[in-house]
Amino acid sequence: MFKISTVAVHGGTDRDLSAGAVTTPVFSSTSFRYLNEGDMPYPRYLNTPNHKVTAAKIAALERGEKALVFASGLAAISAVFMGHLKPGNHILVQADVYGGIFHLADSVLKKFGIEITFVRGHKVEDFREQLKPNTKMLYLESPSNPLLSVVNLRGMAAFAKENNLISVVDNTFATPVNQQPLLLDIDIVLHSGTKYLSGHSDLMCGVVVTSEMMMEHIYEAAIMLGGTLPATELALLERSLKTLVLRVEKQNSNALTVARFLERHPKIEKVNYPGLESHPSFRVASGQMKGFGGMLSFTVKGDASIVLKNTELIQPALSLGGVESIFCMPVHTSHLRVPAEEREAMGITDNLIRLSVGIEDADDICTDLNNSLALV
Ligand SMILES: *Cc1c(COP(=O)(O)O)cnc(C)c1O
Question: Average pLDDT in the 347-359 region?
Answer without folding.
Answer: 96
